[in-house]
Amino acid sequence: MKTTDRLIQNLRIRKAAEHIPASGRLLDIGCGDGALFRHLSDRAIEGIGIDPTLDASSDHGTYRLIKGWFPQDLPSSEGFDAITMLAMLEHVPPDIQAEMATACARLLNPSGRLIITVPSNRIDPLLGLLKRVRLIDGMSLEQHYGFDPTTTPALFSTDGLELINAKTFEFGLNHLYVFKQPAGVLSVVQ
Q1: Phi-psi category of 30—alpha, beta or left, where left has phi over 0 and alpha has psi -120 to 50?
Q2: pTM value?
Q3: 58 neighbors 29 (Cβ within 8 angstroms)
Q4: Which of 96-105, 124-133, 134-143, 170-179 has the highest mean pLDDT?
């Protein structure tokens, strides 16, 4: 990962971290190398990160990183107080996005938060240019499915999650969506 990639990642993490509770269980879908957990090390957070690109699963004390796909490779566990998907929804094939949204709603504890960042569909040409001039590694750009970020609220609201925050950042090149599981809803964790 080049310095510019890390800078962009850190900006996204800081924006999402504003909405993650100070304590509780966190599931980071598409966790990469666990950067979000390291950023949150001053909080009483424990949890799981899952990503198919990891070399191997690993235990880091308060959190585990699991090599695998969400939701099928997530071990049975209790619910989560927060779930994050930072710059990963655009990599999810359209035919499994609804399944992923349903799994998030099922795993989220009452009053829990789902925090999603997704780039604008205008970003791909810019990222392609930055990759060509070697300012970024442009991880997995070939996996972008032309995801329209404005469809995110409808995709995740169908399972009862309430959209409580939606805004753009990084000059409109990224979108932040924060959903909340209603307090009266019980998570159904397998």
Answers
A1: left
A2: 0.87
A3: no
A4: 96-105
